[in-house]
Amino acid sequence: MNLAERVKTLTPSSTLAITAMAKELKQQGHDVIGLGAGEPDFNTPEYIIEAAENAMRNGLTKYTPAGGILELREAIVNKFKQDNDLSYSTEEIIVTTGAKHALYTLFQVLLNESDEVIVPAPYWVSYPEQIKLAGGNPVVVNALEENSFKLTPEQLENTITEKTKAVIINSPSNPTGMMYNKEELIELSEVCIKHNILIVSDEIYEKLIYTGDPHNSIAQVSEKVKQQTIIINGVSKSHAMTGWRIGYAAGDKTIIKAMTNLASHSTSNPTSIAQYAALAAYQSGNGALDQMKKDFSERLDLLHELMNDIPGISCQKPMGAFYLFPNVQEAVKQNGFERVDEWVTALLEEEKVALVPGSGFGSPQNVRLSYAISTENLKEAAKRIKRFVMNHQ
Ligand code: PLP
Question: CATH code at 177?
Answer without folding.
Answer: 3.40.640.10
